[in-house]
Specification:
It contains 15 helices and 29 strands. The protein is of the alpha+beta class. It has three domains: 249 residues, BirA Bifunctional Protein, domain 2 (2-Layer Sandwich); 135 residues, YbaK/aminoacyl-tRNA synthetase-associated domain (YbaK protein); 97 residues, Rossmann fold (3-Layer(aba) Sandwich). The strands form seven sheets. Strands 3, 7, 8, 9, 10, 11, 12, 21 and 24 form a nine-stranded mixed β-sheet that branches. A five-stranded mixed β-sheet has the order 16-14-15-17-20, with helices on both faces. Strands 26-25-27-28-29 form a five-stranded mixed β-sheet, with helices on both faces. The two termini are 33 Å apart. Homodimer.
């Protein structure tokens, strides 16, 4: 294929708004074009990569017993209202009305639509288990699109769904999908971790996330050398608190003028952070127009894990209380809040590490004042203890190894949904005893375009993209140094024919550009192998450069096809050694 005939608008300069290496290089290399904030066009090179990723997905999904279908992007709002997710997703949904004033959304995911289809199509357990999937565009009104195609308003996604009549069927489908996902990411050349994850707005009690470590990853991966891995929202560590045994001292109120942070209050009072209570007030949405004030108590040096709090009280949303609500329920501003004297209308949660403390310092719900020697039960109540904190690096994970942190890009997520959707939408089948039972569901998703960003982020260098051959737009980039020389172009055309006949995809740079421009663009584009036809063309010798390592070798024309096969095999299996 001739490069002069393909739209590849390479750029010398990085886009001014680009923060991520993958964004910089994919835009500079002419893979993507931004139509508006968070909305991207995928140009020919990117389209070829996406097509290969989708091909890998289709192969592995069919091996796992899943078959492809497609639901519409335009979904009736009332379907989502039945499950409660119309409100839960809030402003993230793209909402509109047709000419008959009927409300619709652009689908961000398709649990409801798939459940409705199976509800109306399957009536007996004999037709289950069944796994279906689609690869379609999804839409989410991201408040802050960023990192190029990593977080956009429109994106391509694989979403799969399993339906079974019993738990065994769900477990089997889930395990098959988990292995299929490993195969997909392995074949795409990704470094990734499988981690414990929170199910979020999708729902369900059990989920795993596939996360690709990367500098710009928006998720924090907690992991150990022993194999433990979880995202920060789900991660736990071994409890090492020791019950304090000091005699209970008298509660006293102390002035702390200008002390608005834990550090400032500790310094003013002369107490250690470990004895200071950090008190945070949240508003928990329990239902439509039903909000519950919730105070969370932590040791001063700990951070509240809002996901753990949300799951503990089973609320739809959790957000920090406004200044108005803080004044209403506590009568003070943040920085002076505490549990002493708080009314029953406020639910009080405390982290497990608070339970072992005595004679604590805390805000007095009076601006500029704190208590010292506050104690549980005597001076304030706690309605529920639990693990409500973010783990910290160096703590021991459940497997006994020290915790480490890294950033990660979520590339896939699998969920055991259970019966949440089928129960709300009436998706039932007759079981083997003739009884009506709810279908038991699983949900499985891969961000296809996000996966491109993850691969690029992990493999790009300062010169451009470096694609694994399995998803590269082409296998070989043939570059005649001077396209005006007939012998070089004749050899380029000959090599293209030989390599294409051998099953390789070839891009020939036939442009009448300077050699330096061609080489710079080749590095930007990131095709695994570059074949340069230069001064030794008359002797039938070309130079082959491996994009990933920068190594170059000279090869005779008649040996090129065999050499390309060997090099690509080595790149796909780096541990393989040529004898």
């Amino acid at each position: 294929m001739k490069q002069s005939k393909i739209l590849i608008p390479t750029k010398k300069e990085a886009p001014s708004d680009a923060e991520a290496l993958s964004h910089v290089m994919m835009e500079r290399a002419g893979y993507i074009y931004q139509i508006s904030s968070g909305v991207w066009s995928y140009l020919p090179l990117a389209y070829r990569v996406i097509r290969k990723v989708k091909g890998i997905i289709r192969e592995e999904m069919e091996k796992a017993g899943a078959f492809q279908m497609e639901t519409p992007s335009m979904l009736p709002a009332d379907l989502w209202q039945q499950t409660g997710r119309y409100e839960a997703y809030g402003d993230t949904l793209f909402k509109f009305k047709d000419r008959n004033d009927r409300e619709y959304i652009l689908g961000p995911t398709d649990e409801e639509a798939m459940t409705e289809i199976l509800r109306d199509s399957i009536k007996s357990y004999k037709k289950l288990p069944l796994v279906v999937y689609q690869i379609t565009d999804k839409f989410r009104d991201e408040p802050r699109p960023r990192y190029g195609i990593l977080r956009g308003k429109e994106f391509s996604m694989l979403d799969g769904y399993s339906f079974s009549a019993d738990q065994k069927g769900l477990d089997e489908a889930y395990d098959l999908q988990a292995q299929a996902y490993r195969n997909i990411f392995d074949r795409a050349g990704l470094n990734y971790k499988v981690i414990l994850a929170d199910s979020g707005t999708i729902g369900g009690d059990n989920s795993q996330e596939f996360s690709a470590p990367a500098k710009v990853g928006e998720d924090v991966i907690v992991y150990t050398d022993g194999g433990y891995a979880a995202n920060i929202e789900k991660a736990t560590s071994k409890f090492t608190g020791v019950q304090q045994t000091a005699a209970l001292a008298e509660l006293a109120k102390k002035p702390t003028p200008g002390a608005h942070t834990v550090d400032e209050a500790c310094e003013t009072l002369g107490v250690d952070q470990g004895q200071m209570l950090k008190s945070m007030l949240f508003m928990a949405k329990m239902g439509e127009d039903d909000y519950q004030p919730v105070m969370v108590l932590m040791r001063g040096n700990d951070e509240v894990n809002e996901t753990k709090v949300t799951n503990a009280i089973d609320c739809e949303e959790l957000e920090l209380a406004s200044e108005e609500d803080t004044q209403k329920y506590l009568g003070a501003h943040p920085g002076s809040l505490g549990p002493v004297g708080v009314g029953e209308e406020v639910k009080i949660l405390a982290d497990n590490y608070v339970k072992v403390l005595v004679n604590m310092a805390c805000g007095a719900n009076d601006d500029g004042f704190h208590y010292v020697n506050a104690n549980i039960d005597r001076d304030f109540r706690v309605d529920e203890f639990g693990d409500f904190r973010n783990v910290q690096e160096g703590e021991l994970a459940p497997d006994g190894y020290p915790i480490k942190f890294t950033n990660g890009i979520e590339i896939g997520h699998i969920f055991k949904l259970g019966t949440g959707y089928s129960e709300k939408l009436g998706a039932k089948v007759l079981d083997e005893n003739g009884r009506q039972v709810n279908m038991i569901m699983g949900c499985y998703g891969i961000g296809v375009t996000r996966l491109l960003s993850a691969v690029a982020e992990q493999n790009a260098d300062e010169n451009g993209l470096v694609w694994p051959d399995s998803i590269a737009p082409f296998d070989v980039h043939v570059i005649p140094v001077n396209a005006k020389k007939d012998d070089q172009m004749a050899m380029a055309n000959d090599l293209e024919g030989q390599l294409t006949a051998a099953g390789y995809e070839v891009l020939v740079d036939d442009r009448k550009e300077r050699a330096g421009v061609k080489f710079a663009d080749a590095d930007l584009i990131g095709i695994p192998l570059r074949v340069t036809i230069g001064k030794k063309a008359a002797d039938g010798i070309v130079e082959v450069k491996i994009r990933k390592t920068g190594e170059t070798i000279e090869v005779k024309q008649e040996e090129l096809v065999n050499t390309v096969g060997i090099l690509l095999k080595q790149l796909a299996n780096p541990t393989d050694k040529q004898e």
